[in-house]
Amino acid sequence: MNYLDGTTLKASCAEYGKAWNQKFNDRNRKKEDRPFLKCLRGVKMKRELLDAFLQDTDSSILSREVQWVKRIFDNILRGSNTLAWVESRAKTSDSNHMSPENLTPNQLASFIKNRSTNAVSDADVIRRLIFIRQLDLDFAYALAKTSSWNEVLALRPAIRRHMMRETAINHTGFETFRLELSLPYLILEERDQSQSSSAEVGCGIERLETDLSFLKIDADQGDGPTHFSIWKAHETVLVFGCDAFEWTGYAFSARCPSMNEGQELNPENEDEDNNGSMPDEDLFATGDTNYDDQHVLDANSPIWDPRVYFLCVLAIRVKIIGQRYDSLIRTLELGVDEWTRSIYTVRSPRPVPNAKINTSQLGQEINQIQEVLHALRTHLSRTIAVWVRFSGIGGDISFFSDVSDQKAKFALQDTSETFADLKFQLQKLDGVDRTLEDAAKALKRALDAQNYQLAQQTLRLNQKINIIAIDSQRSVAETNQTTKANVQLLLITSPFAFALQYFCGERNFLGIDRGPKAFVLCLFVLLALLPLTTHAVEALISAKNKLIKLALRKMGRESDRIKEFELNDLEHPDSPDPANTRSPPVRQRA
User: Fold this and answer.
1) pTM for this structure?
2) Cys bridge to 108: 103, 218, 248, 284, which one at CB 3.0-4.6 A?
3) Which residues 6+ apart lie within 8 Å of 454 measured at CB?
4) Segment Disordered: which positions (predicted)?
5) What are the start-end ranges of the E strands in 328-435?
6) Cα–chain-centroid distance for residue 184?
């Protein structure tokens, strides 16, 4: 779509019925509009003020979304000295002009209340800008107490989307116009390790639980790797009014704690010696960020058309978010490219002792990078999707079809170019994702190689163990043979020892002739009796055990004592078992 030519926009406007209500070009300010608090008192509303502010008063039960928004409000630290930047300008007179000021929640409530009561000339054009850097409960109550009914109808969905971190670029409203920008995005912040994490408590935004220090990104100052934090920030801009001659702009930000510290919203602190060489920056448009661009809005040359101003702010805010994404993705690319070298480095063919631990650590690092890529891809996809819907055929861009201001056209063109760059950044993430896939494959190959080397070592170790076991079995067999030989030798030599001891003794207590024939006969008798005695003793022991076991079986006592006797039987496997030959039935107790 060509945004410099309104022909396509007008055709889309006529086809889908989306056109700027010409009623807004007439002066119908404050018609049938009353303070929100007064309306609640008129219907005797008994609900809590914040509940009625966040949800339609017709509903008696809070929705889950409102309950979630209130929980987020409760997590934001109150009384943190956060101020609101407020500016009020009149086009033709200086009676309603207010220089930019920093107001507390109570001062902001007084400003909104006085705004609704001050007399305004019907021939004048009034523009009011309110920028709240950190929207907390104090500011929410200040808006609820002093805003008008129509204003609450515009603020309610904007604040809910802001707290829920939802994405939107749209135009809503019938009696009033509501131009809204709501974009979540990610911020890469260098983390100071010397500071405690207590500063992160109560900031109201979420931080990704990832540690990318392993990427070895050099710090701006100092040595060693840089520790980064990735925050889920959010920017909301709402331009609201009953007509184009009196309107109010609201802006809310949710950023990391370091961006909310040490920055002043007072334009008087700026250098006054520039002699007009640099324009006075419109902090509402830039959100008080370091916007590195020459096309800032000059606060001394205000834009009075709400639609033109919204498109210019949209271009600047989207440009800032695009720069944040570009810095984050560029840093991530450089870190991943350096990190992948540790995976593709040629290792020694011999396994490293801690190689298994290193491989596991690399796998965890891949998971952390993929988590960051998932968050980036999700945020970018949603941001691009709302722009495609806004700028496509039948989108809300049709409400700007009759705008002929060159600033609006250039702002649309800049916004389109920024979103085209965001699409390119999204494609770059696909390249990083492919790099991670290749790194994961290389890591898997390295792990397979390590497992193969470990399997080879295990196989060689098992072979050595088997050889040792075989040698041990051979030694046991040789020992058994030696033992058997010693037993046989003992059975043979023992009769000679007994015979010699008797025949050589002094006393002949048996009264036999101790001659050579008797000695030889005694040897034969002892050689026969000693083995028989040994076998008889073994048979008696085996029979005793079997009788005891049989008695226990008859008594029905199958206990651990039977196992003891069975273990004793293993010492005499060759003895007969008469009990088993008969196979008596086993009695069981009732």
Assistant:
1) 0.74
2) 103
3) 351
4) 261-285, 566-590
5) none
6) 17
